[in-house]
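Annex B. Sample input.
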Amino acid sequence: MKLGFGMTQEQTQKLVMTPELRLAIKVLQLSTVELQEYIEEQLVENPVLETAEEVGEEAGETGDSAPEDRLSKKESERLDIDWEQYFDDTGETWSGSVVNREQEELRFDNFIAEIPTLQSHLLFQLGLAGFNEEEKTVGEFLIGNIDGNGYLECSVDEAAIQCGVLFAAAERVLQIIQGFDPPGVGARNLRECLLIQYEQLNLQDDLLKQIINYHLEEVAAGKAMKVAKKMGVSLNEIQRSIDQLKLLEPKPGRKFSSSEGTRYIVPDVVVEKVDGEYIILVNDISAPRLTVNPVYREIIRGNQCQGESRKYVESKLNSALWLIKSIEQRRVTLYRVARCIVDFQRDFFERGIKFLQPMNLKRVAEFLGVHESTVSRATANKYMQSPRGVFDMKFFFSSGVANTQGTMTSAEAVKKMIRELVENEDQRKPLSDQKIAGLLQDRGVDISRRTVAKYRDEIGILPISQRRRY
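Annex B, continued. Sample output.
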């Protein structure tokens, strides 16, 4: 076979990522909040874009009389208010047409309370502790190194060196901080945190104190019988102390808000049941409606600009039109995907999580005639509000377990069954994973012991040794 160079012509087909396609993909995977922020950025960057606001007619712009002129005589007499008497009653002085407000006007913002952070709560108590300036500096340094769970992340030596004080002085300040609220704050490890709470709550249980000091790991592993033999006490006494131990807080700082604040979920799709049918509403009300500024449109039509100016306006017009088209395409795609989810999971919306059906991206993509990546982007970081609650749209895509009827049972439904079995079990004789698998098989779910253990770990249920009570 002779080899050589030559020129040939062939036709191939490949996907070209045009700027318009990249924009459509980007807009599709944005959530409602992210889309609103993106639109606001585009309104600043693109002068051609503007919001289409619905402005009602004002009385001054029309020939109609003012609203109060259209009131009947009876209504006018009812609305005739003696404003001088009104301001006298409210404590404000009336002087001609000017109201002198000596006090600051009350606003709704003044009544909104913010949950304090752990650091602000501790700093408030630090100011009441009666420290001098040197001790207050050490206290602020130590509080600044307490994490969100309430544990101290630096050593006392480091605090003493950074603040230029003696080790004994820094240790004394730390001991006072450990007496602050919440109990257990400022501890360096779990054992110290529990001991601080033991002393502050005045529990007076020597057996519990010994468990915290010497047998905490064994109790956490569910080896209560082994601990009872070591300490020479009965299992009932150990169980009583363990029950008291469970009342202590291992993370004293978690009841306070984080520095990031509360994050609210804005549903991207709302599902409502009306007359037995489920209605899909795409939540695009918060995002402003976009339109093209007519001034720039007339500039292009009238040939009022040429050269580089015209190219600039045309590029901005194209960007604006593609953005509007991408937002509309996102709304249609999101509606179609949500409609498909509701139709496939109708039993879930009617009867609960036990009837959630296994579903994957491929099934929805084939039904809608789109690619799997399109369905994945349409459901990414988006939430659905339904009569059953608010769910991540990815929640409805779950694997399944075979059942005796030849179909599949959703993994979420199996987890619900496992949780119910554990909640109703005898705590003195808890169910093993093998026993749970047998009970599920009796209900028609073909599941193995290892799968039960996997699902049990995912929903946070402890193994049999740690659930047993004596």
